[in-house]
Amino acid sequence: MRRKIFRLLIAVLALSSFAVTIGTGCKKKEAGPNDQTSAQAQREAPAEQVPAVKPDFPELTSIQAAQLADQEARKWNPDALLWYLTCPSKYLDYRYAENDRAWQWAAVFVNPHNDRRYNVQIQGDRAISGEEEKYVKRESPVDPGFPKDRPGVSLKDAVKVALEAGAPGWEKPMFYYIIDNSNPAYHGKPVWDLVFSSQMVAYTVDGISGKLLETRLLDLAGSRPITPEEIQKLPLGKDENQARDLEIIYQFYQAINEGKYDDALAMMNPETAGNDQTRQIWKNNFDSLDRVKVIDVTAAEQTPGGNERPVYQVLIYARLKNPGQSRNWADGENSRWITISPSGEGRKIFAIATSPLK
What is the pLDDT of residue 87? Predict the structure, then answer.
């Protein structure tokens, strides 16, 4: 029930973030020559660039994603200004709070001379689409002090502020950098909004200074302010076994990626890892991968093993050494269903399947 309520609230928040105010009579502030000079100066300032040499995995930081999207938006309008940045929570890197990376991004830019907006979609390390919005228009005036091609602070820095205020570090939040905020207190101001479902708490961080502006508790009545002291008293909403299981799964594929096959086999149930012949079959399978990394892990809706042997659906990115020669893997995204079971040495991987378990 708690999860359903949260999903409903998030749906309302997401829709209100894109709400369009018709006929307000509010005069838009147009960017003059000085504004354009300011925009150009910021774009020329030192910043984290999209890497010239591609990293091992097609992920970008929030700053790299914004700058890549800016390159596309400037084809639409040379003065385009970043208005919104987000990604689906599941595509945040497992270590997003440390490395600021995600596998997908979505950005919205605005034309400071009118109310038009432009959407850019990023998948991996490439911009895959760019399109002017037909129905949603810019609501707030453009301030010449707004960051132009990237947020003033990165997602990682905003998350750090939220963690210091009591946000759970083990959870991937729903988040967005936004200026046309549905909250009147921050409408027209660059902020990061981060929402953690386990707490049902929203953290608002200034998108320029990086200061914590507000924490709010979400409920059916809407939301209300909540202090850091109150946050510390909230139920954790964390299953310790599940948290350990997620770490095991992540480390399992990290060991495979690093070529530490014996370490990976040590994370498996002894019967699953099998005898020397079976272990060699596992190693051959591991060795077919040039690169592999977990994108996301979620508890399966139906768990045949019950609480004793929970099943997780795992989204995995893989690159093959010899594409087309593996029946088990494909280049790009792959899904696995992994069963975890307790053993004498702790929790272990009991089974790995390529389709849901019946």
Answer: 96
Distance (Å, whole) CA 279 – CA 277: 5
Residue 307 DSSP label: T
Please state the rounded mean pLDDT for residues 234-244.
79
**Closest-CA residue to 64 (of 98, 99, 38):** 99
Bridge partner list, 192 = 177, 205
Contact 9, 218 (CB under 8 A): yes
Q: What is the pLDDT of residue 282?
A: 97
Q: Radius of gyration (Cα) for the chain, nearest Å?
A: 23
- What distance in Å separates the CA atoms of residue 317 and residue 57, rounded to the nearest whole number? 8
Question: Strand, helix or coil at 242?
Answer: helix
Q: Write down the architecture of domain 240-353 according to CATH.
A: Roll (3.10)
What values do phi and psi take at 343, rounded to 5? -140, 180
**Residue type for 181, please?**
N
Cβ atoms of 189 and 181 within 8 Å: the answer is yes
Q: How many CB atoms lie within 10 A of CB 90?
A: 14
- pLDDT tens for residues 151-178? 999 999 999 999 999 999 889 999 999 9
Domain ranges of the chain: 2-232, 240-353
The stretches of 145-275 forming alpha helices (DSSP H) are 155-164, 228-232, 240-257, 261-266, 270-273
pLDDT band at 275 (very low <50, low <70, confident <90, very high): very high
Q: 3-state SS string over 43-99?
A: HHCCCCCCCCCCCCCCCEEHHHHHHHHHHHHHHHCCCCEEEEEECCHHHECCCHHHH
Gap between the Cα atoms of 41 and 206, Å rounded: 22
Phi first, then psi: what are they for 354, rounded to 5°? -95, 0
